Amino acid sequence: MRMVKYWLIILLSAFLIESGTGLAQTTGKISGTVTDAETGEPLIGVNILVKGTDLGGATDVDGEFFILNIHPGVHNVEARYIGYATTTVQDVQVSVNRTARVSFKMSPSVIDGEEVTIIADRISVKKDQTNSIRNVSSEDISVLPVESISAVVEMQPGVVNNHFRGGRSNEAVYMIDGVKTTESFRQESQAVNVNPEAAQDIEIITGTFNAEYGDAMSGVVNIVTKEGGNKFDGSASVSFGNYLTSHNDKFIGLSNGEFDRIQDLRFNVSGPVFSDKLTFFVDGRKNKDDGYLNGVHYFNPHDYSNYDSDDPAEWITEHTGDSSFVHMSWDDNLLLFGKLTYRATNSIKMSLSANLNNREGQWYNHANKYNPLGMPTNYTESLMFSYQLNHMLSPSAFYDLKLSRSDYQVGNYMYENPSDPRYVHDEYSRSNGFSTGGDSKGHTIRGEENLNLKLDYSWQINKNHFLKTGVDLSRITLNQQYSTIQNKFNGSGVEYDNFIDENGELQFPNYAPVTFPDSSTHSDIYTHKPIKFAYYLQDKMEFNSMVVNMGVRFDYFDPDAIYPSNYRNP
């Protein structure tokens, strides 16, 4: 069956002072005026150039200019005009989806080659702070005491514990270079992540959204990654740490003499490949945290205990563990990101990026404190490839083409094969308190493959209107394999006591773990291939004292599954 959602969204933003949103999802814009320093008259035909790039523009009859499609970061902007001293404004901060205002006051000069240098006032450049958008640059991130992108996001106003403006955690959309990375199953987390060191600019929207953003109700986080430059650059760091406590009776297994309970290795390297036209950027991190909650290996999963009798003399206790301390809240994480950027011409730029996340760990379960080997392990693995083409058709128009594929898999189980013979019979799990044997029988593997095509066209019609339109198509494959492993043995209905041999050992000679099909209450297994399509059109109208964003969006969704025909009367 099919479901079609037609959403017609008319977005009239609040009147914002100076700039709002609406540029390409990975670039920013510079605009401003050029006047004569003595007379205040606008200068016509002044050449404006973003130094170190091929981007530039010229002033119109009102002395105004704009430059589109600028990669986020700190730039120097230069103005050249015959009969005037060349003027350069340094340290202009360009943020994704933002307009940086730069004004030039050029002085007449009779000396050829005379130059004037001005340091931009960063506070005066960003005049749109009255809206609910925050941009965090790589320079800001470098001085923040944070270990992850999520920590940067949670430092912003309106964000608390991954909740935006009081909304649910599944109401936010995460993107890397304009490509959505939010997990489709629950919409509660990032399927793909990067290190803070790999981020050039982070755009955090906690208010109203333009028509180009879909699937978002509370917030949008767009991470623009770094690119390689024309010089080789790199860094590496290694750090170790430990948890210290004076309550060793509560936090057992901690030693103040340890130094490597927490291990963190980071590196990044960038530079040209053969020429400045082709550059690379690679960033990686290996982080291992053994946690501060430990268990005692007193029991093994195959140990059997029975305390059902009222007579303690008849209790059965078997423990074959070595009483060593075992980590029960550990995390092992690997992040790798690589990006190749090719500047084919002055107007065409292509990039290919790959992102690998691999994570394993366990959540502490107090019931397993003395049987820690009976706990399941959490597994997360994601791999995303993205190809992007940026083409400047003219100084006032460009388009972005994005093709991406992401594979995401999450697992929670003792053993990957649900029929693994190492699973033990549920009788070993008999316990009224702490686990004295047995193992976890939950077995979950869910996967997602997302093929996405996104095309955006941007056109600065004139100094007041910035038009943007685009399409977004996704084909998603969702696989769910959830099972509770059951017992399979001959002699159904026979008392469990009959499986105790003459030596008091519990024996299940015919036991084998088994999973049931999807039709049972013990399993949830399916594969669906939903399709999502969206089209939007928006206009950003910039005036001297306000900005208006107006847009329309159409969304189509085929869930490839049964759904209620009437949500009000299902």
Written overview of the protein:
By secondary structure, this protein is mostly beta strands. The chain folds into three domains: 28-125, Immunoglobulin-like, CATH 2.60.40.1120; 133-225, TonB-dependent receptor, plug domain (Ferric Hydroxamate Uptake Protein, Chain A, domain 1, Beta Complex); 262-516, no CATH class. 3% of the residues lie in helices and 46% in strands. The chain has helices at 122-125, 138-142, 149-154; strands at residues 28-36, 47-50, 56-58, 64-70, 73-80, 86-94, 99-106, 115-119, 133-137, 159-160, 163-164, 172-176, 179-180, 199-205, 219-225, 233-241, 262-273, 275-289, 294-296, 325-327, 331-343, 348-361, 377-394, 397-413, 442-460, 465-484, 486-488, 512-514, 523-528, 531-542, 547-558. Strands 16, 17, 18, 21, 22, 23, 24, 25, 26, 29, 30 and 31 form a twelve-stranded antiparallel β-sheet that branches. A five-stranded mixed β-sheet has the order 3-2-5-6-8, with no helix packed on it. A five-stranded mixed β-sheet has the order 9-14-15-12-13.
